[in-house]
Specification:
Elements: H1 2-6, H2 11-18, H3 22-31, H4 57-73, H5 81-90, H6 99-108, H7 130-133, E1 139-150, E2 154-163, E3 169-174, H8 179-193, E4 198-201, H9 205-208, H10 219-226, E5 230-233, H11 243-257, H12 265-282, H13 284-288, E6 311-317, E7 323-326, E8 329-332, E9 341-347, E10 352-357, E11 368-373
Parallel strand pairs: 1-4, 4-5, 5-6
Antiparallel strand pairs: 1-2, 2-3, 6-9, 7-8, 9-10, 10-11
């Protein structure tokens, strides 16, 4: 390269010919300037500085000694780099290291008390349900997007669903999402793709039922119980448990609602259906690798007046006295477990509620804290309480 430059070629032409950068040609040309090529040192040079200025050993020892003295006798209890530098100034020392240098001395000599933050691995997906965490059962999460308005004053709400392990999605835009329309969408979805082991919701009345009455099992819960699907309700005002479907909500708005202008609800429903179909096609291998789903029973009929049997799970956090509220009742779980997560397993068949302690750091540790008797009252399902 240097010979070519000396023969009159431009630096840029030489760089192109030898497939190197312009700065590389310039570097070697400058290095060989004024020398015969046979006498140029072509070896790469070390990047280490020619001169290393290191703090004297005596000053390092003094820094360590002052730190020990300050740790034992300082009224303020300060013995870090800044406190050591202040002490050196007070002693009138002529050679005083900078604060960063003192910090490096302390680190080099192993005199730091600071502990590195310990990062715990995240729990597996669905860790609060052992069957889901082991991937032996699938969980479908449902949620509603509210507050959308098509130009012209057409209000829109969207029911979205996604499976935890397979990423199987569903979306149903409508003017208003009621408990009835939710049930219809769930039946439609599950008839095509099969039944999951669990269905998870937030505590909206459309999913849970009316909140003003005790011992209320809404239309959606009764659908799950009649099909052998365990309904799961996330803790109120806590993030993370509905993360999958909340992410789908954000993606649906970004890829559909914000990208297109819709003149009518029908146009929105058509675009949403195309997106869902395309997404399922792209994710088909991931969907197929998910835990198996049960076939939808061919002879099933939905009887809202049938006595509920099966299980419903409520994820809750205890109060300061170790109590939780669900189904309009307050239950004492454990006074020594305040402000902690519990899984309340309402067994309508065994007439009891089993409370399991939960900890994210120990996701497999889920002991039963207490068991309380609970019998769901015998009464007719009041349809006027359900929207």
């Amino acid at each position: 390269m240097v010979r070519a430059v000396r023969q009159g070629e431009s630096l840029r032409t030489v760089a192109r010919r030898f497939h190197v950068s312009l700065s590389t040609v310039h570097y070697w040309t400058e290095r060989a300037e004024g020398k015969r090529l046979s006498r140029v040192d072509w070896q790469d040079r070390s990047q280490r500085p020619h001169r290393i200025q290191r703090t004297k050993r005596s000053i390092e020892n003094l820094v360590i000694r002052i730190r020990t003295e300050l740790k034992d006798r300082s009224i303020l209890g300060e013995y870090g780099a800044e406190a050591i530098q202040r002490d050196l100034l007070a002693r009138g020392k002529r050679e005083i290291p900078a604060i960063r240098t003192i910090g490096r001395i302390l680190e080099r000599r192993g005199a730091l008390d600071g502990r590195h933050r310990r990062r715990h691995p995240p729990p597996p997906a669905g860790w609060y349900l052992p069957e889901v965490a082991k991937r032996s059962g699938e969980l479908d999460s449902f949620d509603v997007i509210e507050g959308l308005v098509i130009e012209g004053g057409i209000n829109v709400e969207v029911l979205n669903a996604i499976s935890l392990h397979g990423g199987l999605i569903g979306s149903w835009p409508d003017r208003t999402i009621f408990a009835r329309t939710t049930v219809q969408a769930m039946i439609e979805h599950w008839k095509v793709f099969g039944l999951p082991a669990y269905a998870q919701f937030d505590n909206d009345t459309r999913f849970q039922g009316a909140h003003q009455f005790r011992d209320t099992l809404g239309r959606v819960i009764r659908l799950c119980l009649s099909l052998g699907v365990t309904a799961v309700f996330a803790p109120p005002r806590e993030t993370g448990f509905q993360a999958a479907v909340e992410s789908l909500n954000a993606r649906w708005q970004a890829k559909i609602w914000q990208r297109f202008h819709f003149e009518s609800l029908g146009a929105l429903q058509s675009q949403s259906a195309r997106y869902v179909a395309a997404y399922r096609q792209r994710a088909r291998l991931h969907i197929e690798s998910a835990p198996p789903r049960r076939l939808f029973p061919s002879t099933w009929k939905f009887d809202l007046q049938a006595r509920p049997n099966g299980s419903v799970i409520y994820l809750r956090r205890t109060d300061a006295h170790g109590r939780v509220s669900l189904l309009g009742h307050s239950f004492v779980v454990d006074s020594s477990w305040p402000h902690r997560l519990v899984r309340a397993h309402v067994d309508l068949t065994a007439d009891q509620i089993r409370f399991h302690a939960l900890r994210r750091r120990e996701p497999t540790w889920q002991p039963i804290v207490t068991i309380v008797p609970y019998q769901f009252p015998k009464r007719r399902f009041r349809d006027d309480h359900q929207t």
